[in-house]
Amino acid sequence: MLIVETVVRIRREHAGGKAIKAIARDLRLSRKVVRKAIRSPEAAFNYQRKVQPLPRIGPYQDRLDALLEENEGRGRRDRLRMTRIHDLLVREGFDGSYDAVRRYAARWRAARRKDAGEGAPAFIPMTFQPGEAYQFDWSHEDVEIAGKPMRVKVAHMRLCDSRAPYVRAYPREGQEMLFDAHARAFAFFGGVPRRGIYDNMKTAVTAVFTGKECHRSCNSPQKWALKIP
């Protein structure tokens, strides 16, 4: 069977005026093969492997399937990496490579999704009008101040429409810092959007914005929105 590079070379040399006899001599091929590459390239060398041989994984396929099935049942943070699964197989006598296990796992997951009827993931685009909403959250950052390492709390506010950000660092995350961050951010943006989107911050829910309309439960793990009158 000719490889693609050889077929391409045969076509190129023949198109340049080189005789079939000369091409066959230079490439050490029969004239029949050269003619086939020139005259019927679409059908003559089309090859698709129907059965994927598993010389190394074969004896351990059932065990690998069980490990993958068990791994899928774990929580996302508790799942084993493919390197760990490969190591478990090696301890049981498997002498194949990590890449073989990784490729098999990829095919296993693809077949599993196909059997479950899962298609391509769908996404709902989120659009906002100017001044409609902002997002607010905290992050922890390690910095060096006066030569000493310190962890600071950083307030992040971002307009949902323009994605314009405002960031300010504080020594801790508290109610007064939350007030100050909002006041400075609104002054920086030159106005107050109609609603804010938060990610379950107790300082914002129970202490600062008590009594306002919360679209979702404050104890929900999802994001919730707050209307500002």
- Helix-strand makeup class: alpha+beta
**Main beta-sheet annotation:** 5 strands, mixed
Helical amount:
40-55%
Mean pLDDT: 79
First and last CA, distance: 75 Å
Poorly predicted regions are 207-229
Tally the helices: 9
Count of distinct structural domains: 3
Q: What coarse outline follows from CA principal-axis ratios? A: elongated
Protein name: Transposase
Organism: Sphingobium cloacae
Sequence-ordered SSE layout with sheet pairings:
Layout: H1 4-15, H2 20-27, H3 31-39, H4 41-44, H5 61-72, H6 82-91, H7 98-115, E1 133-145, E2 148-159, E3 165-170, H8 175-189, E4 195-198, H9 202-208, E5 224-227
Parallel strand pairs: 1-4
Antiparallel strand pairs: 1-2, 2-3, 4-5
Helix pairs in contact: 2-3, 6-7
Summary, kept brief:
By secondary structure, the protein is of the alpha+beta class.
Task: Walk me through the structure.
This is Transposase. This protein is an alpha+beta fold and 229 residues long. The protein has 3 domains: 41 residues; 58 residues; 95 residues, no CATH class. The chain is built from 9 helices and 5 strands. A 5-stranded mixed β-sheet has the order 3-2-1-4-5, with helices on one face. A hairpin with a 2-residue loop joins strand 1 and strand 2. Helix 2 crosses helix 3 and helix 6 packs across helix 7. The termini are far apart.
